[in-house]
Amino acid sequence: MDHDHMPGMATPPPPPSAGGGGMEHHSAMGMTHMTFFWGKNSEILFSGWPGTRAGMYVLALLFVFILAVIVEWLAHCRKTRNAGDFSGGLMRTVVHGMRIALAYIVMLAIMSFNGGVFIVAVAGHIFGFFLF
Predict the structure, then answer these.
(1) Which of 29, 39, 100, 118 has the highest CB neighbour count under 10 A?
(2) Which residues does the annotated region (Disordered) include (predicted)?
């Protein structure tokens, strides 16, 4: 039986290119890193953002740092609220949902595999934990 022509069978992926080692995915728009890298030329959260400008990269790092601090603040709010009635429980649920959503956004930023983003995300969580 010829396995290359069986219906429903997917073709195997092409072998990694020489020099790339299979660690990066090349697309029409650019390259997605699959290992940590250093540099300002990155895409964080949105296509084309922050781009190649150093000022926009610093703004992106500041944004991730602030998000991580807010996640820690919301975690603190969750611990200090009294959920004695329905509205208190509802408010805790909303705060929990916001905390989880922002934590996932920070995680997605880290998945850009940019070393600077990783460092500021961890620093933001540390600073937020210290503050609250």
Answers:
(1) 118
(2) 1-24
Domain ranges of the chain: 54-131
Residue 17 CB contacts under 8 Å (≥ 6 apart), including other chains: 26
Q: Is the peptide bond before 12 cis (omega within 30 degrees of 0)?
A: no
Contact predicate 87/95, CB 8 Å: no
Round to whole Å and give the CA distance between 108 and 97: 17
Half-sphere exposure (Cβ direction) of 97: Cα atoms closer than 13 Å: 6
> Can you give the pTM of this predicted structure?
0.69
pLDDT tens-place string over residues 18-27:
444 444 444 4
Quick check: 84 and 25 in contact, CB under 8 A? no
Q: Are 41 and 52 in contact (CB under 8 A)?
A: yes
